[in-house]
Amino acid sequence: MTLSNLISDRAKKIEVSGIRKVFDLARSLKEPVNLSIGQPHFDVPEAIKAAAKDAIDKNRNGYTVTQGIPELRERLKADLVERYAKPDRDLLVTSGTSGGLLLAMLAVVNPGDEVIVPDPYFVSYPNLIALCGGTMVTVDTAPDFRIDPSKIAAAITPRTKVILFCSPSNPTGVVADTAAMKAVAELARDRGVLLISDEIYRAFHFDGPADSPAFHDENVLVVEGFGKTYGITGWRLGWVHGPKALVEEMTKLQQLTFVCAPSIVQWGGLAAMDYNVSGIVEDYRRKRELVCESLDSNFVFNKPGGAFYLYPKAPWGTGTAFVTAAIQQNLLIIPGSSFSKADTHFRISYAASDDTLRRGCEILNRLAAAGPGK
Q1: For the chain, where are the E strands, in sequence order?
Q2: How confident is the model at residue 89 (pLDDT cuts 50, 70, 90)?
Q3: Does pTM surpass 0.90?
Q4: In terms of Cα–Cα distance, which of 229, 316, 304 is closest to 273?
Q5: The last residue of a domain, from among 223, 239, 272
Q6: Per residue in 201-220, pLDDT tens?
Q7: Does residue 221 sit in the same domain as residue 247?
Q8: Do 263 and 183 sit in the same domain of this protein?
């Protein structure tokens, strides 16, 4: 028997991330202009680093309770009560937002169940759904990439188990409006479907306060994270909150998989909750303006309301063809086909220095003006 015969059908359904392919390519290029990485470029605040180091020195290096250390849970619970005024929402500290999303899928999705996802979507969603044997049903949001509740309603079938979306969106940066959030939350409730709201970019709202479908219905499961907000993506710290019965099932699954979120990281997360990120958010708002103004003459795009991504339409050819040309000019960006059934756009991350952004925009404008094959 060959090794290939041993690989499960589940694993064979999983595709290597298009983002990861670009990361790997970056290693082969000499000092590329990198606008591909969804990684905050700022240093981790010293107080957060110090808290994690202190946890090591105080020998807080062993397992924690699966739900998360009590000190962090108490702070998160207080945050929930302040934001939602719903003290009955349960919470679980997870190993990153990806860990939280996987646990949610495992707890709810059976083989053959359908998960409705607006297109474009975060690159991991199809694979998380496939791991559970589910089927992803996409709902097109072009050209403005805003959620249309009527399209979601039309996509629901007797096999639908979950509606999953991210706001602010990765890859588009689009923020779902309050009316759409309310409508989708009520739709999910009335049709007996779980709504999962991926709010990893909650801190990065540029044009108004953060909204959530959980403000409109208590049955929504919300997934949040520390990594993007505080620059600690590699620390793998997230949390979920929602209906108690569902969170209890996810806790059971975490105990038998991830066991707990990294112990020292949880202490860092506790310190992070005392850090004011408004200055960081303002800096990214300014970077958004820099990139949008630089590309406005040569590209068509929707101005992002949050996160730190821009999703322009390729000015010629497919998204993949344009990205290939950009890489040949030592510029790393991500093709839209990594996030969508359509190969028409590409993603820029403006989580980079101003100098890198200016150099990247210069290359993009030059490519747009030159046309294909130039």
Answers
A1: 33-34, 90-94, 114-119, 135-140, 160-166, 194-198, 221-225, 238-242, 309-310, 331-332, 334-335, 346-349
A2: confident
A3: yes
A4: 229
A5: 272
A6: 999 999 999 999 999 999 99
A7: yes
A8: yes
Distance CA 64, CA 69 (A): 6
Residue 51 pLDDT level (bands cut at 50, 70, 90)? very high
Find the CATH number of the domain harbouring 138: 3.40.640.10
Q: How many domains does the chain have?
A: 2
The structure tokens listed for 123 are 């690159």
What is the domain-level CATH number for residue 292? 3.90.1150.10
221 and 84, same structural domain? yes
Contact predicate 270/336, CB 8 Å: no
Provide CB contacts within 8 A for 218, sequence distance 6+: 86, 88, 89, 243
Q: Are strands 114-119 and 135-140 parallel, antiparallel or unpaired?
A: parallel
Q: Are residues 125 and 212 in the same domain?
A: yes
Rounded CA gap, 319 and 313, in Å?
7
Q: What range does the domain containing 302 cover? A: 3-44+277-367
pLDDT exceeds cutoff 90 at 6: no
Residue 19 pLDDT class (50, 70, 90 cuts): low
* Cβ–Cβ < 8 Å for 263, 55: yes
